[in-house]
Amino acid sequence: MTGRMRTTRAALLVLLLGPVIALAVLAVLHHTLLSSPPERSAVPPQGDIMEDAVAAQSTIELAPPAPAQVARPARIEVPAIDVDADVVPVGLRDDGAMEVPQQGLAGWYRPGPRPGAPGPAVIVAHVDSGSGPDVFVQLHRLRAGDGIAVTDARGTPHRFVVTGIEQVSKDALPIERIWSDDAGATLRLITCGGQFDRDSGHYRDNIIVYADAVAEDRLR
User: Would the pTM of this model clear 0.85, i.e. be above it?
Assistant: First the structure.
């Protein structure tokens, strides 16, 4: 595994696991991260997979630019679950905390590949918030064979077909499957799932959708 891939996986660990669990895992990966404890909240589910995550920017190295023919993602459509949302890049704020997409938007994890470029691209969105359902509220309903289209900023659609979906505890995130070494273009859609823990203010699990690029229009 290259140093670049390790740092990208490190950032995703903080993004998805939260600071406490991430520190333990990242110690094994020899990455130095800063973290702060999650805020306590009695508010209804926030659907937040990146909130409260803090990383030292010096440990994050952006992936090399995607091939020139692949522009940054601008929109995602998943007809099977009625998703049609703008995509914005998310990464790290100046203070080192992970950015989150606003309600109604999906977030492309900018340190990783662009959808349609070689490697695993990651798009995240909230499942809900205090004001109601959000972009990925029905992500858990996707099945193998469902289609996904990510349109880039040049208007070029990059099409994917779902190959698998899983719900996993946030303390057992399958990093090796998310950041696989496949040479082709792949896509991962991630949101929160499972039971909501009112003490921590977060869901206990993640929903992860795996998809591979396809040449033909497979949307349904």
Answer: no
